[in-house]
Every structure is written in structure tokens, then in C-alpha cells.
Amino acid sequence: MAMTVPDSIDVTALKRDFPLLTGATMHGQPVVYLDSASSSQKPTPVLDAMQDLYETTYANVHRGVYELGAKTTDLYEAARASAARFIGAPSPSGIVFTKNVTESFNLLAYSWGRANLSEGDVVVLSTIEHHANLVPWLMLRDERGIELRYLTMAEDFTLDLSRLDELLDGAKLLSVTAMSNVLGTLPPVRQLADAAHATGALVMVDAAQYVPHLPTDVTELGCDFLGFTGHKMLGPTGVGVLWGREELLDAMPPFQGGGEMIRDVRLDGFTPNDVPWKFEAGTPPIAEAIGLGAAIDYLTTIGMDAVRTHEMQLTGYALQTLRDRFGDSITIFGPDDVTDRGGVISFAFDGLHPHDISQVLDQHGVCVRAGHHCAKPLMRVLGVGATARASLYLYNDESDVDALADALDKSAEFFLV
Amino acid sequence: MPGLEDLYREIILDHYRNPRNRGELAVPPAHRVEGFNPLCGDEIVLFVEVDDDGTVRDIKISGQGCSISQSSASMMSSAVKGRTVDEVRDLTRAFKAMMSIHESSLEKDGTEPDDDLNEVPDVKLGDLEALRGVVKFPVRIKCATLAWITLAQGLEETAST
Lengths: 417, 161
Ligand SMILES: Cc1ncc(COP(=O)(O)O)c(C=O)c1O
Prior knowledge:
The structure holds two protein chains of two kinds.
Chain A: H1 11-15, H2 19-23, E1 25-26, E2 29-30, E3 32-33, H3 44-57, H4 67-86, E4 95-98, H5 101-116, E5 122-126, H6 135-144, E6 147-151, H7 164-168, E7 171-177, H8 189-198, E8 202-206, H9 218-221, E9 225-229, E10 240-244, H10 246-251, E11 262-266, E12 269-272, H11 286-302, H12 304-326, E13 330-333, E14 344-349, H13 354-363, E15 366-367, E16 369-371, H14 376-382, E17 387-391, H15 398-415
Parallel strand pairs in A: 3-15, 5-6, 5-7, 7-8, 8-9
Antiparallel strand pairs in A: 1-2, 4-10, 9-10, 11-12, 13-14, 14-17, 16-17
Chain B: H1 4-7, H2 10-17, E1 31-37, E2 42-50, E3 56-64, H3 67-80, H4 85-98, H5 141-159
Antiparallel strand pairs in B: 1-2, 2-3
Helix pairs in contact in B: 2-3, 3-5, 4-5
Bound molecules: pyridoxal-5'-phosphate.
């Protein structure tokens, strides 16, 4: 397929920043990494930032008077400021570091949820959510008797908005994904947020798949809370973010108790710290947050517009290639138009089980995810137990897609003799 | 390095393409039990009918899964039909042992287990031997054992009702 626009990223040059992508092998073959929706690979600047910290600067944060402690604290807080800029947050104080986006959801459900929701209160979710945006609310339902309502999926893999106002009627919170980790669907967050606010509900956005791949601005999205996770955006594991409007975070009770999160402790009580530290009990993931800061700098240098453009082109190439080569043998679960979706491509292939497909792909060095992708309710909607999923990122190019297609040919040969 | 042929032996592919004992049984007299593999979303539904004298009179399987879980279930159904519950228990232990799962690797007090407690029953696995290669692919062991664990649960439930 001829590209009319030059690609926005020089992938060959960029791959050199990722030691695993150029150095590692699987079963003696070079690695074709198509599982970034699960977790991304890490570039040298991120690895160096963490290594440098431990070798030259490391001490605990917010404690030591000595220089190392002060320097580490500065680096940690600078990472918070980077994260705020990266999502267009008005101030770093709205950025709470968590251990992953799952913890961001649990924080919100535990702290905001318990302070604001009681029996009969309504939270609106959707049927395409990741378990991280389902189970904490189900737990709260079991504990508090809140009511959960669900936006459903339309035929074209978008959210069905025809009953939106009805579902939002009387709701206190709408919590939805900005990009499905199974379908690639990009729900219209702004429209949803406006509708929710019109009925007095607050809005939480699961941006785990969005922030790594699209330019993000919380003001433009119009949400009140937003969560994302470091390891899917070139950062290390062990760090995530919950962003919240400061006045909302201020009014929320603490999540976990311990050091860091207090201003004063007496034997008969305590005074919590200011936000965001109020929500960061104990020693935080210091090196991880600093690594995430380095990942954000890396992505910022390339430019999120360039990342999005590259991924739209590559997703278009992938959809076209899979359809051209496999026709009716492949079913793709997700929107057709690349402007309506991200580079997550879930598919069913020739009646083969995703596990078996990915086992054959593994032998050819191709990493894809097979399973329910932590979205079991969505699997039931799709009428499958599992899907195979190839997901693209800035370091993938057409050769990766071609390798996937070649390996799919091999699995068909193997199983369908 | 283990290759695909170690995992997908011909007989496994045969059971996958032509699964034995697919379907459902009337409940009662049969007992219905479900098993899940939380890792990959595989689901299996077993219908098992046990005679008063403790013989597995009939077994049917429905649900969905990969070639390993489906073929393992298919082979299991052929292997247990007509056997007594005790024989099935021995077969299950022998199969799990082949999958490197031992019922009690350490005694509660932390000492090494008695040899004969951990002894694997001397039963012929027959076609089931074909699944031995799965051990080289540790992520897939759960696929191979799903049907067996579900059957064990079902038999336990029938015994207690
Ligand atoms: C949409 C979405 N939400 C939440 C998560 C959970 O991320 P984590 O496991 O880092 O908490 C994921 C990733 O698995 C995801 O894709």
C-alpha cells in the first residue's frame, strides 16, 4: 500500500533505542514485539535514568536533609511535573503516583467512593471496560449496595449512546475507558463527560491505553479524574498515576495510612498531608516514577502527534494486510476506520483457538497476546472465550505486520491440514 | 529446544479435530460441573453420570478451549468411561504426576514426604501419554489439566450428594 504521507517516525533509527528489540531472540528468531497493549518495551534513556539514580543520587524522598535526599526528592517531584504537563493538567498537585492504574481505580473507589456513595447511588460504566474499571465498583456494590449501570457496545464496536441520558439519570459517577484494550475503540470522552456533567455526575477516565498513544489533555477531555499506567508507555512497572481535579482530591479522605501521607500524628489521631502526598502512603516507587518521567521526556521529544500519526498509518496497513491475505478466515473485532481506533487489533482466525495461534507465532518470534485481556464481560458480548491480539506502538513498522501475517499462514498450515 | 511437534502430537490434533463425547446429559441423573481457566478464558462444562455401584456410566463435554484443553478433555472422557470412581481417581493422580503436579510436595511439618504417600498409582495412561510434551510448555499445563480438575471436583460433588 503506497503511503501518501511520509511516516512521522523513523522506526529503524528508533528501534536502536530499545535494546530488547534489537538484541533479544525467541526460539532463535529476532523478536517481533506486538504486545505493547499489555506492556511496552523500554528505551535506553529510561533504563539509564533509573540506573543513574541508583548509582549517583539515590536516597529516600521527603525525608533527608542531606544533599542526596534533596536531589532525589527534586527528581521525583520533577517526574510529577512532567506527568502533569504530559496530560495537560493545570498543576502537579493533581498527580498522585500509584503502583499502576489498577491501584488508581481502587484508590478512587475506596476513597471517593466510600465518602460519596451510599445505597442506591448510581455509577455508570460500560461493557467494554477492563476488569480494573469493573471489579473495584463491583466490590463497592457488594459492600454499599450502589447500583451499576452499563453503556453497551454497538454493532460497529463503538459505545451505544442512544440510552446515554437515561443511564446517566441520577448518576454520581461515569467511569469509562478512553481506548478499549481489546477493540481499539476510542469512545467520545468529551461528549460523554459533557452529558455526565449535565446530570451532575463526575467523570473518571481509564486512559491506560490512551495516554501512551494519543496526545492527551484533561481539560479538553473534560474529565474530573483520569488514570494511566507507566509500563504501557515505555516506563517501568510499579508506577501509575491517578490525576484528579485538585478540589476533588482535597475533599477526599486518605486511601492507605502510614508515613508520607500525614502532617501530624498523635496517639489519639492524625492530620493528613496535602494532596498529592496524602494519597502516597509509605515510601513511593521513587526510581519507577523517575523512570516514568524519562519515558515521558522521550515520548515528548518524538511528539505524541507523530506517535499517533505513525500508529494510524501502521494500523491501516495492518488491517489492510490481514484482510487482503486472509479474507473471510479472519474476523477483526474493532472499528474499521483508523481515525476511530487505536492500534490494538483483536481477531479470531479460522476457528483456531487464540492460545494455539500464539503458540505457533511464538515459534516464529512473534509476541501477541491470547486470552480474555482482562475484559471477560466484553468477551461474552463478542461471543468468544478469548481473542488473539496484536498491538502496535511507535517502534513497530510494516515488517512487524508482515511477520505476523507470515506466522499466521504457518499456524493455518499447521492446524488445518 | 522443544518444538511444536513435541506439543501438538498427531493424536492430540486428532482429538481436537474430532472430539469424543461432546454434548450434554440430562441433569439429573447426570451431574453438571463447570471449570474455568482464568488465564485464557477457557471454559469447560462436564456432565458425568455415576452408577450406584460407583462406575462412571457416561460423560459428556461442552464448552470451549484450545486444542490442548479440548483434546485432553476428549481423551479423558474416553479413558474414564466405564471405570470406577476409584480407578478414575488413580488415573487423575497419574495424569497430574505426568504434568509434574504432585498432590503434596511437602508434609505439613516441613519434612520430606513419605515416599509411598506421594507414590504415583501404577496405571496405564495409554493415549494420554501423548500429552507428556505439554510439560515442556509450562504455560500450557493448566490447559491440559483443566478437564481433570473439573472432573475431580464433579466426582467429589456427586459423592457428597
Ligand atoms: C484499558 C486498561 N485499563 C487498565 C489496565 C490495567 O493496567 P495495570 O495492570 O497496569 O494496572 C489495562 C492493562 O492491562 C488496560 O489496558
